[in-house]
C-alpha cells in the first residue's frame, strides 16, 4: 500500500533504460550509491537533474543502510520526460511519518524523516510502496523545459579558425591488453607507422615507443597505459626507424569477462586538434571574441584545465596552447632558479624530442635588447644572432618571441614561441604572448612551489630511508651495492662508484649499475677503458664529459665497422650492444666526491641517457646522499679492516689442526658466542708432547672479549711450552696459575681440564688428568653406564699456592671420554638448565657411536634444549677408543 496523502505514480511513461545496484549495510555504501547514481545519469545525459538525484539518493540510502541496517537496492529508470529512482530496504515494518499530522516530518534537524522531507521539496513526484519483504521509497525528477533544438555543447569555433589538415587525416586505433602487448592494430595505424598488423600484434607497445617518458610530463608510457584516462604526446618509431611524433588519447576499459585493456587513439602531433581542440583567438584580437552569444577571453582557454598541483601537465598545456595561439612551429617554457641567475627548461613542444629538458641557460646571455630573459624580446632572424636563444641552436627555428613570467616583479620563468621562417613575429604577437604569460605566471609559480614542497618532503623521506639502509650494514661490498641501488633509477639512469684505497692509489671502478640490467656489462666495459675522474674534494656535482665522448666514439667506430670501414668495436660485443651502450651514457654525467674524515675515499658518478639533463633538486639530493654514503663506506672499510685483524688474531688462538692419535678417535666442536667472533673465552687444544704421549686441554676463561681472548692465548701457548719441557700435569697448571696472576688487573680466573694421553698396545688408552674448577669429564662405558672421570680441584687465577694432583683413567675399547665447557651444562630455557645430569642422560644414549657422532648428538641436544641462540661459548672434546676390528 502507498502512504496516505502521497501520490503513488503509475509507470505510464515508456522506460528507455534502467540501471540497478545493491549496497551492503555499511557506512561507505552511501558514497558508493551516490557515485552510482551520478555516473548513471551522467551517462544518460541527464546532467540537469544529477545534483538533486544524488542528494535524495544519499538520504534514502543512509536511512536504509545506517538507520534500518539492511541492504539498500537502488534502481534508476530513464524515460522520455525524466528519471525515476527507487530505493528499497528490507525492513518493511519501519514507521514512516504520515503527511498532515503534527509529526509529519518534525524538525529538519531530527534524525528520522529528513529523506522524505527532501523528497517533498525537490522531487516532481514521490511516494512509498510496501511489499511483504521490503519498503520502497521512490522519487521522480522531470527534465526542465528547453527551447526547441537546444542542447548541451561547448563553444563553436568559426570555420576560418579551424586547423588545416595537410593530408588525409588518419587516426590510429591500437588496443593494448593487460600485459601491455598490442592486441588490435587498425589500417590507419599501419599507414602511419608502416607496420602490418601481424608484425606488431603480441608485442609490447613500449618496444615501438621512441621516448621512454612523455616529454614535459612525469608520466612514462607504460604508466600512462594503466591510467583510466590520459592524453599526451610521445613518439612511435616507424618501420624505417624514424620517429613519428604523435598525440595520443588513452582510455582504459574492460570486456564482459572483466579483462582490462587500453584503447589508444593516435594522430600526428601536428593534428592534435582532432583529439584535443583548443580554441584560438583571431590574429587581430588581443582582448576577446564572441562564441555563440558569449564573450570569450582567449587566455581563459589558454590556461587549460590541468590539476592545480600538476606542474608538468600545466607547463606542457601552456606551451601547446602558446604554440597554437600564435600559429607557431615550436614553443618552450623555462623556470627560473631560486637565485634567478639561470633558467631551467621544463616543457617544450615542436622541438626535437625532450632532449633539452632540465637543461640550464643563463638569464643574462649578453648585452643589448635581446640579451636578457627579464624583458620581452622579438628575434626576427636567429641566423643573425645565433646565441640569442641557446635552446634553439640546431633546431632550424629562425624567428622567435620570448616573454618573461613574473610574480610580484620577480622573474619566475620565460615563455617563448618559434617558427621556422624568419620575420614571423612582431611586437603585437609579443604583447599577446606577454598578456598570456601574465595570466599564467601565478598559476605556474603556485604549482612550482607545490612541486618544490613535495620534492623536499620526498627528499627528506628518501634520505631517512637511505640513512637507515646504510646504517644497517657494515659490509663494504654491500654498502657499495646499496649506494648504487638507491640512486638508480630514483636519481639517475646509471651509476658508477669509484673507490680510493689510500692517498697513493688511483681511483678504482668498484661498482656499476644501470636501470637496464642488459647494459651493465657494456657500461662497465666503456668506463674501464677511460681514465677515472679526478678525486677533487670540492663539494657539489661537477660535469664529466669523458663517458659521453667515449660512447660517441664507440658508436662512430661501430657504424664504420657496419659499413666495412673499420675494425672491431671499442666495447666488444655486437654493434647493437655498442650503440645501445652509447645511447645509455650519452646524456649528462656528473661526479660527486665521497669525502669522509677530511679525505676523498671515492667518487659517485651519475649519468643520464642521450641528451638528458639533471634537475638541480636531484643534484642537491644526490650531494646529500653522497655525504651519508661516504661516511657509511668509510665506516664499512674501517670495520672490515678491524674484523680482518680480529679474525687473524683469533685464528692464532686456535690450534692449527688436530694430530692423528693411534687407536684413538678424537672430535672437537667449538662455537664462539657473539657476532663475528671465532674465539671467545672458551678454548681447547690437543698436541703431541713426545713420542707416544699427547696433551689435551679444554678451558673456560672468565668473561668475554679481548681480555678473555688474551688469557686464552696465554693459557694455550703456556700449556704446550711447559708440557714439552717435561713438566707433569700439576706442575704445568701451577706455573700457568702463576703466569695468570702476574697479569695483575688484566688477569682472569680460568677453569681448566688438562690431561696427558698414552695409547697402549692392547688397544686401550691411559689418561692422567687434572680438573681445575672445570666441569668434570664424563666416561661412557660399553654397557651404557656414565660416570665422572675425575674429581674437582681449585680453579686457576685466584690463589697463589695451589696443591693440585692428577688422576689416572684407563679407557677400554669402546669407552668414550666427553669433555665440555660450562656453555654446554649451563644451557638454559627459562628456569630450566641442562646441567650435569641432563648431559649424562644424553651421553647414555651414545653407546656404539663414533667420536664424531657423539659430539654431534651432544650439540644437537644442547641446541634443541632452548629456542634462543646460545649466549655463552661452547666447546666439546670427545675421545673414544674404538673396538678392535673382527
UniProtKB/TrEMBL annotation:
Keywords: Hydrolase. The keyword Manganese does not apply. PROSITE patterns: PAS. InterPro entries: Bact_Sigma-Reg (IPR052016), GAF (IPR003018), GAF-like_dom_sf (IPR029016), HATPase_C_sf (IPR036890), HATPase_dom (IPR003594), PAS (IPR000014), PAS-like_dom_sf (IPR035965), PAS_fold (IPR013767). This is SpoIIE family protein phosphatase. Residues 176-203 form the PAS domain. CDD domains: HATPase_RsbW-like, PAS. GO terms for biological process: regulation of DNA-templated transcription. It comes from the Bacteria. Gene3D superfamilies: 3.30.450.40, Histidine kinase-like ATPase, C-terminal domain, PAS domain, PPM-type phosphatase domain. One of its GO terms (molecular function) is phosphatase activity. It comes from Streptomyces beijiangensis. The keyword Hydrolase applies.
